[in-house]
């Protein structure tokens, strides 16, 4: 069969009723059928991989926070700092970043708005917990008569805390549903949104660094090397999954997201 006759046959088949089209599939080349099957199989594998990475991310982040809370929380003023900060960044901000990655491929409509709203609510929880954790350590330093921001953990942590507040403010600004972005020229909207995303990524991974530095302090190491290593490896695994999802797994969704910047959300 020539290429011209094969093309004509496919065009004719598209004009036939659905029942006749189904019976006409027998005339489709084996290579075409195989290609369609492989495409469907790859799509299913992509969905399965996404579900698996979501589940593993949530399980590992929750396990790290639960172990840290169970071990370090003793109702003292200081203990609220590691507990609140781990909840803020390892659990809630990780979930917020995961949600942000997932809605990048949604090009508008109610589904995208719902996803962005979820991202906002989870981030609000992260910000409130971060504020509580910051207040706890600040007041504890005053109580003990110690100077503030003397270690790398404290100094980079201060940067992350201020950046977190700024990124949250940028999120409110860039979410069209809130109406604030309309005070700026429409041509600036994509730039504002991309700036919010870039600042969010930088803040998140600096937060992971601060957590890792915090796990090297005496409050953690006094509980033994095994405990410290489990928390460090768990936190690194969480960051690695987020990095994979953000930079490798969904490149096509990110590309679609630039178009989505111009949509309702």
3D architecture notes:
Helix content is 78%, strand content 0%. It contains ten helices and no strands. It has helices at residues 3-15, 18-23, 30-72, 80-102, 110-144, 152-174, 189-214, 218-221, 225-249, 251-260. The longest helix is centred in the N-terminal third of the chain and has 43 residues, at 30-72.
Secondary structure elements and their pairing?
Layout: H1 3-15, H2 18-23, H3 30-72, H4 80-102, H5 110-144, H6 152-174, H7 189-214, H8 218-221, H9 225-249, H10 251-260
Question: What Rg is obtained from the alpha carbons, in whole angstroms?
Answer: 25 Å
User: How many strands, what sense, and barrel or not for the largest sheet?
Assistant: none
- Contiguous runs where pLDDT drops below 50 for at least 5 residues: 14-28, 30-45, 252-264
For the terminal residues, how far apart are their CA atoms? 50 Å
Strand content: under 5%
Compressed to H and E, one letter per element, the order equals HHHHHHHHHH
Share of helical residues = over 70%
The best one-word shape is globular
Task: List the total number of helices.
Answer: 10
Strands, count: 0
Q: Which structural category do the helix and sheet elements fall into?
A: mainly alpha
Whole-number mean pLDDT: 82
């Amino acid at each position: 069969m020539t290429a011209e006759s094969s093309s004509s046959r496919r065009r004719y088949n598209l004009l036939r009723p659905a029942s006749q089209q189904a019976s006409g599939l027998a005339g489709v080349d084996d290579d075409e059928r195989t290609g369609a099957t492989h495409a469907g199989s790859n799509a299913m594998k992509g969905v399965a991989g996404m579900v698996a990475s979501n589940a593993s991310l949530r399980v590992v982040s929750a396990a790290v926070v639960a172990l840290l809370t169970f071990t370090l929380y003793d109702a003292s003023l200081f203990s609220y700092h590691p507990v609140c900060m781990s909840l803020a960044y390892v659990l809630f901000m990780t979930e917020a970043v995961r949600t942000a990655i997932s809605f990048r491929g949604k090009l508008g409509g109610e589904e995208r708005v719902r996803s962005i709203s979820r991202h906002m609510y989870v981030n609000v929880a992260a910000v409130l917990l971060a504020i509580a954790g910051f207040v706890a350590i600040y007041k504890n330093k005053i109580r003990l008569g110690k100077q503030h921001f003397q270690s790398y953990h404290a100094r980079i942590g201060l940067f992350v805390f201020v950046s977190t507040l700024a990124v949250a403010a940028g999120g409110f600004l860039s979410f069209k549903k809130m109406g604030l972005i309309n005070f700026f020229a429409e041509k600036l909207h994509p730039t504002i949104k991309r700036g919010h995303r870039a600042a969010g990524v930088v803040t998140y991974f600096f937060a992971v660094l601060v957590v890792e530095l915090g796990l090297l302090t005496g409050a953690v190491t006094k509980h033994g090397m095994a405990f410290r290593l489990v928390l460090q490896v768990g936190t690194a695994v969480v960051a690695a999954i987020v990095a994979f999802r953000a930079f490798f797994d969904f490149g096509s969704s990110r590309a679609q997201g630039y178009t989505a910047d111009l949509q309702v959300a």
